TrEMBL record:
Origin species: Candidatus Viridilinea mediisalina
Name this polypeptide is given: Haloacid dehalogenase
Pfam families reported for this sequence: HAD_2
Residue ranges of coiled coil: none
Top-rank lineage group of the source organism: Bacteria
Gene Ontology CC, one term: cytosol
PANTHER family found in the cross-reference section: 5'-NUCLEOTIDASE, PHOSPHOGLYCOLATE PHOSPHATASE
Length: 223
C-alpha cells in the first residue's frame, strides 16, 4: 500500500477538485446583464474564479449596494443552475480513493458558500471521500480563505494539524494556508496564473492531477 507524506489533506474546491468555469461564467454574465452592467471578457471572467464573490463585485462595480444586489442575483441563479454546470477534473476520484486507502483524512476548505459547495460534492459523488466540508457562511462568520482553513484545523487532532497540507489553485489558497501556518501545494491546472502562483511561493506547484498525486505520495515537492 502506498504511504502518503501527510496525515490530512485539505482541498480547495473550484479549480482544484472541479472545473466550474461554465457555471460560474454564465452566472456572472447573467448577473451583470440583469443589473444592466457591461459584460466582461473571458480573461476577466476566468480571473474572477477563486476570489470571494462580494470582493469581486465590489471591485468591479465600485458600489457597495450594487455589489450586494449582484451577490443576491448571482446566488439565486447559481443555486438553481450554475452549480451543476461543472465537471470533476479527470483523475481526481482516483487520487481521492488512493489517499483514503492510504489512511489519509480528507477535508474540503472552500470560500464558496457552504450550501452550493456541499451540493456540488453531493451531485458529483465526491462527498463520501471527505471527513468534513467547510465553506463560507451566509452570515459571513466565515468568509476568507484563512477563516475557512482555520475552521477545518479545529477538526484535526494535534498530530494531524502538524502533518497536513492544503491543495489549491490560487494565491488566496497559498496566503490562507500561510496565515494558518500550514504548507500549500498549488495546482496550475486551475484558475491562478503560473506567475502569480510562483510569486506566492507555495511548497510546490503541481501541473497536473498526476503530478499532485506524486507530491502527496512519492516525490518530495520542490519548486
Amino acid at each position: 500500500m502506498a504511504i502518503s507524506s501527510y496525515t490530512a489533506v485539505l482541498f480547495d474546491l473550484d479549480g482544484t477538485l472541479t472545473d466550474p468555469y461554465t457555471g460560474i461564467s454564465r452566472t456572472f454574465l447573467h448577473t451583470l446583464s440583469t443589473l444592466g452592467q457591461p459584460l466582461p471578457d473571458e480573461a476577466t471572467l476566468r480571473a474572477w474564479i477563486g476570489p470571494p464573490l462580494h470582493h469581486t463585485f465590489r471591485d468591479h462595480l465600485n458600489d457597495e449596494a450594487l455589489a450586494a444586489e449582484a451577490v443576491r442575483v448571482y446566488r439565486e441563479r447559481y443555486a438553481r443552475l450554475g452549480m451543476y454546470e461543472n465537471q470533476v477534473y479527470p483523475g481526481i476520484p482516483e487520487l481521492l480513493t488512493r489517499l483514503r486507502s492510504a489512511g489519509v483524512t480528507l477535508y474540503v476548505a472552500t470560500s464558496k458558500l457552504i450550501g452550493p459547495a456541499q451540493g456540488i460534492l453531493d451531485h458529483f459523488a465526491l462527498s463520501p471521500f471527505f471527513q468534513g466540508v467547510v465553506g463560507a457562511t451566509p452570515d459571513e462568520r466565515l468568509s476568507t480563505k484563512s477563516e475557512v482553513i482555520a475552521a477545518v484545523l479545529t477538526m484535526l487532532n494535534p498530530a494531524a494539524r502538524s502533518n497536513c497540507v492544503l491543495v489549491g489553485d490560487t494565491t488566496y489558497d497559498i496566503e490562507g494556508a500561510r496565515a494558518c501556518n500550514i504548507p500549500c501545494i498549488a495546482v496550475s491546472y486551475g484558475y491562478g496564473t503560473l506567475s502569480d502562483l510562483q510569486a506566492a511561493q507555495p511548497l510546490a506547484i503541481a501541473h497536473s492531477v498526476e503530478e499532485l498525486g506524486s507530491f502527496l505520495f512519492d516525490t518530495p515537492p520542490t519548486l
